[in-house]
């Protein structure tokens, strides 16, 4: 079972972000072929570049990373407060750790965005 992260809206691109293991997927429609592999949670800048390729007009990478940060913040909130299910392929604490690791990797490039992910307020 996938762990649902949240709805992403970046300009004209609207989709749902999912996590399986450490791999991020974006579901753009209801068909199976509408699922796009974005990359690993460990490499958020690479994910932002892949999302940028899906958007019809050029958007800055910072705006894409900001949208991913918002989705990851929601996911971190859910992962840190929910109980595990035996059907999940990833445990909630593993998701929280993956998001914390992604935030620490992002802190090297954009410290304020990394703080937003782990901020409780």
UniProtKB/TrEMBL annotation:
Protein name, entry field: PaREP9
UniProt organism field: Pyrobaculum islandicum (strain DSM 4184 / JCM 9189 / GEO3)
């Amino acid at each position: 079972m996938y762990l649902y992260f949240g709805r992403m809206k970046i300009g004209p691109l609207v989709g749902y972000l999912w996590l399986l293991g450490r791999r991020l997927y974006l579901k753009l429609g209801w068909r199976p072929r509408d699922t796009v592999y974005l990359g690993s949670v460990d490499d958020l800048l690479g994910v932002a570049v892949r999302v940028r390729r899906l958007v019809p007009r050029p958007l800055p990478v910072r705006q894409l990373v900001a949208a991913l940060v918002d989705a990851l913040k929601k996911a971190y909130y859910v992962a840190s407060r929910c109980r595990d299910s035996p059907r999940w392929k990833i445990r909630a604490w593993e998701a929280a750790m993956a998001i914390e690791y992604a935030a620490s990797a992002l802190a090297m490039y954009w410290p304020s965005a990394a703080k937003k992910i782990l901020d409780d307020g």
